Amino acid sequence: MSDALDHIAYELLSRAFPTEDATRIFTEKVKQKPLYLRPSDTEVADARELRRRERLRKQTLRRKKQKPKPLSAKEKRALCIYDIPKESQKYHIYEPLHRMWVTYVQEVLGDGCEPVTAQAAAKLVSADFHGAEVEVVKARCVSRVGVRGIVVKDTKFTFEIVTRGDEVKTLPKEHSTFRFEIPSPVQASKASDDTNTSRNLVFELHGSQFKNRATDRANKKFKQKNLSDL
After folding, report:
1. 126 by DSSP, 3-state: which?
2. What is the dihedral sign for C-alpha 178, 182, 183, 189?
3. Residue 186 contacts residue 196 (beta carbons within 8 Å)
4. Spatial separation of the C-alpha atoms in residues 3 and 1, rounded to whole Å
């Protein structure tokens, strides 16, 4: 009881109540009352608050599982994702790519690539032309004829090339004919002492019949069509 007499709450109660009432109130409502230093987490919220918390929890989990939203075509153009940097627009940078492409196409055609059969031609049109060195030999726009360079981007409707003058040019496939060469080691005639010489296989590609992306051409079956624009 001596501890209660020294308590400031008992002193205040004794001023307002008789001694017996002050002792009873202090014992029941002050001394045995737990003191919470922070709001209790065990309080039961109302039904609306519980639903709101559950909804927020599910939204957070859904965002973690979902993949980031892909960029739109407009956003990609604004960010210049597919543009070639100015410092990379050099012809010599893509010469190793062209040599790799030549090796790749020779493997596609196979050892017996001469003469070129219909089966080998079907494989060739389904090949990837990134790294090919193409030249425009026919086009409705006369200024494009003679343009030559290494293909750095093969889209559905255009070839984007880097010329020997370190310029990037976009060539539309429609109404254009492209020529490219593939080195082919062949055996010369017996009169030339049975030595191997190097001869290029020359192909012409009609762009109007080639309007497909590289990934789409891999599984596409090409059919013979009349070339009405020639």
Report:
1. coil
2. negative
3. yes
4. 5
Token pair in block for residue 37: 């230093």
In angstroms, what is the C-alpha Rg of the chain? 41
Q: CA–CA separation, 211 vs 75, rounded Å?
A: 25
* Region of 201 on the Ramachandran plot (φ > 0 left; ψ -120 to 50 alpha; else beta): beta
- Side-chain-facing half-sphere of 109: CA atoms under 13 Å: 23
Instruction: Answer yes or no: is pLDDT of 196 > 70.
Output: no
Digit-coded pLDDT (tens) for 113-166: 566 666 777 777 788 889 999 999 999 888 999 999 999 998 889 999 999 999
Tokens 């990134």: give the residue.
130
Residue holding tokens 């007499």?
5
Residue ranges of alpha helices (H) inside the chain are 2-6, 8-16, 19-25, 47-65, 73-79, 91-109, 118-125, 214-217
Q: How far is Cα 168 from Cα 206, in angstroms, rounded to an integer?
A: 21
**HSE of 193 in the Cβ direction (CA atoms, 13 Å)?**
2
Q: What's the rounded Cα separation, in Å, for the pair 183 and 164?
A: 20
**Residue 188's pLDDT band (boundaries 50, 70, 90)?**
very low
Nearest one of 132, 128, 159, 124 to 144, comparing CA atoms:
159
Its pTM stands at: 0.61
Residue 13 — left, alpha, or beta (φ > 0 → left; ψ -120 to 50 → alpha)?
Answer: alpha
Total length of the chain:
230
